[in-house]
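hiii, so i know i said id send this last week but things got crazy w the move. better late than never?? heres the sequnce for the chain we talked about at the cafe, plus the structure i predicted for it. fair warning i was half asleep when i ran it
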Amino acid sequence: MSTRRRAAIAAAALGALPAGCEEPLQPVSEAPTLLAEAGDYTMWARPKNREERQPVVAPHGGFVDIYINDVVVADLAMVLPEGLPAWSEEAMVILAGYDAMEGGSLVQVAVMQKQGGVWAWEQYDGSSDEPRFSGRPDVCVGCHSAGEDFIRSFRLPDPPPEE
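okay and structure toks below
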């Protein structure tokens, strides 16, 4: 064992910190979930034609409310000659699934966010704040690949109509 290593072990045993480590180490915290980052998503905008709860056949509960963050709102407002080819970075969509059209119990919350050019997902049981799964689960990717840039409930902005 080197003299330097012995000195570090002896200093640690006496409670001294090695040079350059004046601050005690802090525990590593886990990254916040997408849902935690979203905050009170029920105050977010709703996509056009999705302002109210809708019946669905998707596995998200029989009836869903859809919420979009300000990135998606800005994307939907874009008017580009070629249309918008994909949703912007940090776009987030949250779907709250219920067991009834009016009132009802929250049975599921699904979150998707575009990160680094790809979509990440989280899914929660209605009564839990811990995700059932997160990341890029095959079940999400497989179903959502049918949508425009993985969004199935509303479309990317089209080009302006020709005059």
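btw The chain has a mean pLDDT of 84. thought thatd interest u
miss u guys!!
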